[in-house]
Model the fold of this input.
Amino acid sequence: MNKQQFLVEMNARLGKLNVQERLDIQRDFEEYFEDGMREGKTEEEIVAAFGRMDELVDALLEAYTEEDFVDTASYTLEKSPQHQFSKVEIKSNVSDCIIEPSPDNEPHILQSNENTNNTVKMTIENDQLKITIKYNKMKIFMFGFNFRKNSKERIRIQLPIHVYEEVRVKNSVGNITLLDLQCKQLHIRNEVGRIRLKNIVATSLDIKNETGTTEIENVFTTTGKVHSELGKLSLLHSKAEQWNLKSEAGNLVVEYATGKVKARAEMGNITIKQKTITEAYNLKSEMGGISIQTDTPILNAEIEVKKELGSVKIYNEKTTYYSNGTKDILIKIKSELGKVQVGLNNSY
Amino acid sequence: MNPQFKKGILNLCTLALLQKRDMYGYELVQEISSQIVISEGAVYPILRRLASEGFLTTYMKESLEGPARKYYHLTDEGVQELEKLKVEWLNLSNAVQTFI
Done:
């Protein structure tokens, strides 16, 4: 078993634990893998040394109290003759949705027992699993949800582990969290609330968030298009051939992500933090500052800055142009008002 | 080894190691497993329970090699718990010594 398989299986088996705790456990084990691999161990060796999965999971669950478990009502699919699907569509008008792998390879919807105001529907039509969640009483919900990290989860949608052709999620109000999912096309729309993606493999990714932060971590894709209108957009430890990032009012943060990056921010700052940069970057901000920090200097690059007002510094020099080596990598920066800085991580 | 017995010993070793200095998960597990045969996964449930009982706190610290690590720190309550477990252990081990 490799690291990814181990983490997905552990996460599925810890199913009754609330998501925040599970993410925390997953983080601790990821750190352990990092440390073990730095010492030259393979993923498989590390997994083997953890001992038996069922013992580990039982021991972990024993370390928690009832409060950390989710009290849920479960919805399971009515058996239909055609029980196969390669596409998933999830529509919800007001709830916090967590989409995660199913422990028994059947789709399930779990929701807290307190939440009897929701109408939940799950059907399969033409190769597509359709889930709709409707909140019946619309009166005061605007005060009911919150964006806190530990906000109690509402709905958990568990999908069989499979490489889906397409997964579409549409939500009006509430947070969306996607964990450990694989698909070809991933399409997410949210009006109000946070979008969070972790451990996702998708050939193409298209996310639009109107109000609320968007966090992408450990996501592998070919083309990643992410548009966060008002909230902060952060892209961490992820990989694509091309990233297309856009934020109207929020800050845009890229940390340790690989691939070409095209980023547009109107009001917010663009902050890039990488080991180094080996692919083309195109960064543009109207009002905010742009900063690129790398652990080691960017080699074989040409850095061009277009600027109206505000200061520019490239490796501590006040210049708008810098080149080095073969100049294969083009880094274009355009900023109207904010400060532009390119330098080493430790120089700030 | 008897699981309850092992759990008790792991509690004691974990608290004792953390009294010397704050440690992150991997180094703590390696220290213990260099002396005692354990499943390396077994330490995490123990760390969680000790933390939820207030014997440990955690904090994140940047590392030179990669992403930030979670460090475990012994609290005053943890020091008291350690003293209590140490006494229990010494009494038990002295008693067992008289038989073997």
